[in-house]
Design goal:
single chain, mainly beta, flat, 60 strands, 2 helices, six-stranded mixed beta sheet
């Protein structure tokens, strides 16, 4: 009876409603916290910690705290924003609140420990993983071990035994890397019972490392690093691996059969032939704004380059613009807009994509009905928090239709940005919404002398009243705003930024504001985040200035917490203005462009006070100028031949001659053969000179003339380095990329057996060297 009563109670309880369990309470969460240090151990500046794809949290006073982490394996990243812009990615298993200190320029080695079926080893197994240098041990916890932090760039060897015997130890070797968003687990190894790793170096005949060699066992491919190092893991003990070594599809080391056993499986190899991939090619043309029309794109190549590929956009066949040995290309855009070009260098061994791209902004035709016109500019003082100051000028140079962060097409004014803190070659542009005068897109690229970093931002400003689209400059006093922004940071390892907020907009009219540019009657706009109540933006607009006279930006999307812009002066052109910027000019022929000015019968272009053009065009090509400084002024000729003086710019011309490119490939020839050497012809060249550097270092001029070809004979035995220079407009170009002609004796047959013996000796010596290294490490 008692059992029946108990069963009835259980059934009744089962029918009672179950209280809801909040999703957040269904699983415990933990906090990751710690300190951040510089590489020398001092307190680091602001550092952003990110777990998986969550929003980053910044450190404050050298400490950070990241709450709400679910149990399990995660990827954590530290970005040292104020200490070298470096990052560190690592794998971590979190089962409780955890403390983790980070050091700039350091990282951890982590390893998963699995049983023979690939399952993580449980806690309490007693298994220990050893680190050889420095000597450390770590017990398996949650199926993982970790060592560090150590300096990135250092090599470390680890070993472990599943049965505790020295004879059955598996090994792994790793070069410690900072990691990246695309390779966050680069320092995470795997030990699996019954498997081992093979690793070593590939060098050339002189002992130098050979990078980008593909090492394959037919299933897994790995590439040698810049140090020539490779590592292949997960190989089953008791089997054999047939290793191949190729570069650009060409075999560089004879196939090697490796028996997979326990112990450190070092296997070093010497490449039997020398393979050189092309060195980086670099754009000579820099980011700038240009008129709609033909654009000259120029670049320079590195050693071992046979030809180039130029792409309009991403590197794929449909975007290919040019493929060949020339180092320039004339591109004619079909329409105004922003163009991004990418470059690849090729030779018969492979391809090397240029890491940097080139952005060119093609200006559209002007429309004088717009609120802004080309040549208008506004000067602001900027105060950043943390505090530093600068003075900035925004100059309208065109109009363009682009998509905002919501994918909507927006009419924008294209604006050039200059700042007194910018270095030579540093460029910045804004695309400002034609209705709200708020930035829809921004682009900045660092000075070439500093770095190739860039930053691009896409914004969206969706104003509405009760769900219907609205304009910012209407008569309403309140509206809603959905703001969206994506920041793309072109710094290796730098995290990209995202914002997506809903806001309340309040507007007040006839607000008097005193600035350094004067006192203005303004429309005051306040944008408040609906989630936290923070005022994200405050803006004061004046219709005479046709712009904001003050902006307080508390969401700047940069290294600042807040930026205050205050107008110090503005200029609405009452005469034509140059769109071409003052600066340096490396070509002796160049184009100058100016803005359209309403009512003009003709334009007058002066060069150092002398008229060089008169007509109705808004651009002019200046040809064949000697080195020097030239001042240009653009004037408008109005009715009755009245001359209205316009803007002035200064260009410093320092002509750099183009470099010839040899089209004859490097080759090996017999001593009685001739070489037909040819190269790209240059316009208006005075003469070419061909030099030969012989194997003993002696340099001899073998040709001087105006033809872009020559027949070479009597080259000495060995490798001859050949380069061509050109004299153009009284200036000598840089030497061309080298071509190597190797001359051999025509009696090679008698030496074939000796060569075969020498090659066999290398293989034998390499084998004994590998065995010697293995025995040393077993000790």
């Amino acid at each position: 009876m008692g059992k029946h009563w108990l069963l009835a109670c259980v059934l009744c309880l089962a029918l009672l409603p179950t209280p809801a369990i909040a999703e957040d309470d269904a699983q415990d969460t933990f906090t990751l916290s710690g300190s951040v240090f510089t590489s020398s151990g001092d307190e680091a500046g602001t550092t952003y910690i990110k777990v998986d794809s969550s929003v980053s949290v910044p450190s404050e006073n050298g400490v950070y705290s990241f709450p709400g982490i679910t149990p399990g394996e995660h990827t954590v990243r530290a970005y040292f924003m104020n200490d070298g812009h470096t990052v560190a990615y690592r794998t971590v298993y979190i089962a409780q609140d955890m403390t983790l200190d980070w050091y700039e320029g350091h990282n951890w080695i982590t390893a998963a420990v699995l049983d023979s079926s690939g399952q993580p080893i449980s806690d309490g197994s007693g298994l220990v993983v050893e680190l050889n240098d420095p000597s450390q041990t770590s017990e398996v916890l949650n199926g993982m071990v970790e060592f560090g932090p150590f300096h990135t760039g250092s090599y470390h060897m680890l070993s472990m035994s599943y049965n505790g015997t020295v004879d059955e130890r598996s090994y792994a070797c790793v070069k410690l890397n900072p990691g990246s968003a695309s390779s966050p687990r680069v320092n995470h190894l795997t030990f699996q019972e019954g498997t081992n790793s093979i690793f070593g170096y590939v060098v050339d005949g002189s002992g130098f490392p050979v990078p980008q060699i593909t090492v394959s066992n037919g299933v897994v491919d790995v590439q040698t690093t810049e140090d020539g190092f490779y590592s292949m893991s997960g190989l089953e003990v008791g089997t054999t691996a047939e290793l191949t070594f190729t570069q650009g599809g060409q075999e560089v080391v004879q196939n090697h059969t490796q028996t997979i056993d326990y112990g450190p499986l070092w296997a070093n190899f010497t490449a039997s032939i020398s393979i050189e991939l092309p060195h980086n090619a670099t754009f000579v043309t820099t980011t700038t704004s240009v008129p709609l029309g033909r654009i000259s794109l120029e670049w320079g190549g590195g050693e071992y380059t046979d030809y180039y590929s130029l792409y309009d956009g991403e590197i794929k066949l449909e975007n290919l613009l040019y493929r060949g040995s020339l180092e320039s290309y004339e591109f004619t855009p079909s329409e105004a807009g922003t163009y991004e070009f990418k470059l690849q260098a090729h030779n018969r061994n492979g391809t090397n994509p240029t890491p940097d791209s080139l952005v060119m902004i093609v200006l559209p035709n002007q429309n004088e009905d717009n609120l802004w016109s080309a040549g208008m500019h506004w000067n602001y003082s900027l105060v950043h928090t943390p505090e530093y100051r600068s003075n900035r000028t925004y100059t309208a140079i065109g109009v363009e239709t682009i998509a905002d962060a919501f994918g909507r097409d927006r009419d924008t004014f294209l604006v050039r940005v200059t700042d007194d803190t910018y270095q030579e070659g540093e460029k910045s542009y804004r695309w400002v919404d034609a209705n709200s005068l708020l930035t829809t897109k921004s682009y900045w690229v660092d000075a070439p002398s500093s770095s190739s970093y860039f930053q691009e931002g896409i914004m969206g400003w969706n104003f509405s009243i009760e769900g219907d689209d609205a304009q910012l400059f209407g008569n309403e006093s309140t509206m809603d705003l959905h703001f969206n922004r994506t920041n793309i940071i072109g710094v290796p390892g730098h995290p990209n930024g995202y914002d997506d907020t809903t806001n309340t907009v309040t507007i007040q009219h006839n607000i008097s504001l005193i600035t350094n540019a004067g006192t203005f009657d303004t429309t005051y706009i306040k944008i408040t985040d609906q989630n936290d109540g923070i005022v994200s933006w405050e803006m004061w607009y004046n219709s005479t200035v046709r712009n904001y006279v003050k902006i307080v930006d508390r969401l700047p999307g940069s290294h600042s917490e807040m930026v205050v812009y205050e107008l110090t002066g503005y200029y609405h052109p009452q005469s034509p203005q140059f769109l071409t910027e003052s600066g340096n000019q490396s070509n002796s022929t160049y184009a100058i462009e100016w803005s359209n000015f309403d009512g003009t019968q003709a334009y007058q272009l002066l060069e150092n006070g002398i008229e060089i053009y008169r007509g109705d065009a808004t651009s002019y090509e200046v040809g064949k100028r000697s080195d020097g400084v030239y001042e240009y002024q653009i004037n408008a000729i109005m009715g009755l031949e009245y001359v209205l003086q316009g803007g002035v710019i200064e260009l410093a011309v320092d002509f750099v001659p183009p470099v010839p490119v040899i089209s004859t490939p490097s080759q090996t020839m017999d001593e009685d053969e001739l070489v037909n050497l040819s190269w790209t012809g240059l316009q208006e060249v005075q003469w070419y000179t061909v030099s030969v550097e012989q194997p003993d270092g002696t340099i001899t001029e073998v040709y001087n003339g105006s033809d872009p070809y020559v027949e070479l004979e009597d080259l000495v035995m060995g490798q001859n380095r050949i380069r061509v220079t050109a004299m153009v407009d009284g200036k000598l170009s840089e030497p061309s990329p080298s071509v190597f002609i190797t001359v051999e004796s025509s009696e090679n047959g008698s030496n074939s057996s000796l060569n075969s013996l020498s090659f066999g000796s290398v293989i034998v010596l390499t084998f004994f060297a590998a065995m010697y290294q293995s025995l040393r490490r077993r000790r």
